[in-house]
C-alpha cells in the first residue's frame, strides 16, 4: 500500500508540474503579471504538498454573488467547508499587497535539483478579470505572504 501511495504521489506531482509549466498568467507589455492588487480579490487558492497524498496545507476561498465567502480548507486528513463575510477578502488583499505578491515570479526552483521535498502553488483572481499565478518546488519567495494567507484561513472558526 505504501508503494502505491508513493507512486500515486509522484505521478500527481509530475502532472502538477506539467500543468503549471503550460499555464500562463495574463501579462502587460512589459511582461509582468497584470494583477497588481489594486482591485478586489474574488478567488484565492493555495496548496502545499510533500511526497504523500494529502496536502500539507490547502485552501480555496471564493467570493459569492451574495457577498459571502465560501472556504474549503484541508490539512492532511482534516478537511472542512465554512463561510465567512466579505471582509476576509479585504484581509487577503492586504496580505497580497503587503507581501508584494504581484511582483513574485511565476516559477520558483532551487539552484540544484531536489528529488524529495515540497511543492506549492498560489492562484489569485481579481474582480477586473486579472489574476496572479505563482508556484514552486523546494523554493519560494522571500515574502511571508503564503504563511500569512494560511494564518488568516486557519484562524477562522467554523
CATH topology: Mago nashi protein
Which stretches are low in confidence, meaning pLDDT under 50 for 5 or more residues running? Answer: 4-37
Which CATH class? Alpha Beta
Based on DSSP secondary structure assignment, what is the total number of beta strands?
7
Number of helices: 3
What is the topological layout?
Elements: H1 2-22, E1 41-49, E2 57-63, E3 68-75, E4 78-85, H2 87-98, E5 107-108, E6 119-126, E7 131-137, H3 145-154
Parallel strand pairs: 5-7
Antiparallel strand pairs: 1-2, 1-6, 2-3, 3-4, 6-7
Task: Write a short abstract of this structure.
The chain is of the alpha+beta class and 158 residues long. The protein is 27% helix and 31% strand. It has one domain: Mago nashi protein.
Describe the structure.
Mean pLDDT is 81; it is low at 4-37. It is built from 3 helices and 7 strands. The protein is globular, with a radius of gyration of 16 Å. Strand 3 and strand 4 (78-85) form a beta hairpin. It has helices at 2-22, 87-98, 145-154, and strands at residues 41-49, 57-63, 68-75, 78-85, 107-108, 119-126, 131-137. It is an alpha+beta fold and 158 residues long. The chain has one domain (2-26, 35-154): Mago nashi protein (2-Layer Sandwich). It has a 7-stranded mixed beta sheet with strand order 4-3-2-1-6-7-5, sandwiched between helices.
Amino acid at each position: 500500500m505504501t508503494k502505491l501511495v508513493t507512486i500515486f504521489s509522484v505521478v500527481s506531482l509530475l502532472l502538477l508540474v506539467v500543468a503549471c509549466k503550460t499555464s500562463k498568467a495574463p501579462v502587460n507589455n512589459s511582461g509582468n503579471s497584470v494583477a497588481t492588487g489594486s482591485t478586489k480579490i474574488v478567488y484565492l487558492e493555495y496548496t502545499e504538498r510533500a511526497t504523500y497524498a494529502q496536502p500539507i496545507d490547502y485552501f480555496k476561498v471564493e467570493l459569492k454573488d451574495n457577498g459571502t465567502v465560501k472556504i474549503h480548507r484541508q490539512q492532511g486528513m482534516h478537511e472542512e467547508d465554512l463561510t465567512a463575510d466579505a471582509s476576509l477578502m479585504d484581509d487577503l488583499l492586504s496580505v497580497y499587497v503587503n507581501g508584494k505578491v504581484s511582483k513574485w515570479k511565476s516559477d520558483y526552483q532551487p539552484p540544484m535539483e531536489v528529488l524529495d521535498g515540497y511543492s506549492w502553488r498560489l492562484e489569485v483572481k481579481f474582480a477586473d478579470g486579472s489574476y496572479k499565478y505563482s508556484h514552486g518546488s523546494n523554493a519560494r519567495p522571500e515574502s511571508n505572504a503564503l504563511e500569512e494567507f494560511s494564518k488568516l484561513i486557519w484562524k477562522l472558526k467554523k
